[in-house]
Amino acid sequence: MKIRVLGAGAGGGFPQWNCNCVQCAGVRGQTIKASPRTQSSIAVSVDDEHWVLFNASPDIRTQLEAFPGAHPRRGIRDSGIKAIVLIDSQIDHTTGLLMLRESSSPLPIFCSEMVRQDLTSGFPIFTILGHYCGVQHHPIPLDGSPFSIDGFDDLRFYSHSLKSKAPPYSPHRHDPHDGDNIGVIIEQVSTGKKLYYAPGLGEIEPHVKMALANVDCILVDGTFWQHDEMERRGISTKRALDMGHLPQSGAGGMISTLVELPARKILIHINNTNPILDEGSPERHELNAHGIEVAYDGLEICL
Ligand code: MLT
Ligand code: MN
Ligand code: ZN
Q1: What pTM did the predictor assign?
Q2: What total of structural domains would you count in the chain?
Q3: Ligand 3 centroid vs 278 CA: distance in angstroms?
Q4: CATH of the domain at 271
Q5: What pLDDT is stored for residue 258 in this prediction?
Q6: Between the chain's N and C termini, which has fewer beta carbons within 10 Å?
Q7: In degrees, to the nearest 5, what angle opens at C-alpha 90 toward C-alphas 143 and 47?
Q8: Ligand 1 probe mutation, 38, 55, 57, 91, most atoms within 8 A of CB
Q9: Is residue 164 scored above 90 in pLDDT?
Q10: Whole-angstrom Cα distance, residue 217 to residue 196?
Q11: Is the pLDDT of residue 222 over 90?
């Protein structure tokens, strides 16, 4: 199985358009060692030709152009992207769907019932797409039972609900429901290799722990280093856990969860305020010492 990171940044990307924090200013002015990152998305394939897209970011047009696997090759209108899985209904994971409206057939989209509801109410992208290519919605189970995607016979998917946050425009923003945000295990049947993907993860519940311990590669929430990182930088009073993101540092943080695990461990969905983006930072060195990687746009992982 091949995994292509299309965008390793969190909402806003890196640098963010209106941000003058040390990281954003540093990457703009090339005064720190860091690469820009577009917003959160990956693609997965077993044949290098047909890809499942996970999340459709606002940067999708640039991401797909930068990725030969997605280019049209087989006809006057075509794409290597054959299906789309949505992890949640947040802006950074769904707005790109609007950029796919020229599709000549309804977009095959796999998502939870909660995400479907958000995308037909508070942020009615599915409804809007009904006036263009349309959406062919496929519900996904959250009880651990596998689901498959047409055309991907060698892949099996398992999803479960995570403690994270529905977006501000969700009708149940303050009333969490199963399926507001999911983690997915992607298994290649012929090899038994497994990836766990969870770009928004607020709590390591027992079912998450089990998934993390049983896969070959982990691509997991790398949004914030500290719970109050944005506040410390004078940017916002929003805190990591209130946004549904477990910070990396500190007791019970993401690092303490990941260090013990045998899998390849990679952080993704990294916010522009996170010091790990600076390859010369002590925080990045700490990750390196623990064997934890930081995803970047264009990274390809072969399992
Ligand atoms: C999140 O991951 O918490 C959201 O994408 C934040 C945002 O809307 O930018
Ligand atoms: Mn996000
Ligand atoms: Zn910034």
Answers
A1: 0.98
A2: 1
A3: 12
A4: 3.60.15.10
A5: 98
A6: C
A7: 65
A8: 91
A9: no
A10: 6
A11: yes
